[in-house]
Design brief:
19% of the residues lie in helices and 19% in strands. It is α+β, with helices and mostly antiparallel strands.
Length: 52
């Protein structure tokens, strides 16, 4: 798959994917960076998250 997405280098995930097993698998299989972007605590509904 990494030959098909040559420009991909960072994957942003929301807080629902905080599992380290998944992030370690991505890093092990592909040379990609995994970053978790969390919703501000004061927001309760859908919120557009900023790119880090």
């Amino acid at each position: 798959m990494k030959d098909k997405v040559k420009r991909l280098h960072t994957i942003w995930m929301d807080g629902g994917y905080r599992g380290e097993d998944f992030a370690h698998w991505i890093i092990y299989v592909f040379p990609w960076i995994v970053e978790v972007v969390l919703r501000p605590l004061e927001k309760k509904a859908f919120t557009l998250l900023p790119k880090p």
